[in-house]
Write a structure and sequence with these properties.
alpha+beta, three-stranded antiparallel beta sheet, 2 helices, globular
Amino acid sequence: MHRIYNVKNEEYYLIGDAQTVIEGPIQREQIFAIIIKVKRKGKWIVPEDFQWKFFAHIWPNIIPLRRTIIKTYRFFKR
């Protein structure tokens, strides 16, 4: 899933949850969906949930740390 990272002069910049590079700019017409809930491991996640808030507000602001966090998560997940 990609999230809007920034908007400048009506141009949108996006970043995927597992990415470390911001994509863009893209135009509003290129955005074709707004996610209102996500099903993960059989459970619905909605905007009120901590996990949603973390990935919407904190995760986009720690781009330089993402690679290390993802590698650490995968190491311990084994």
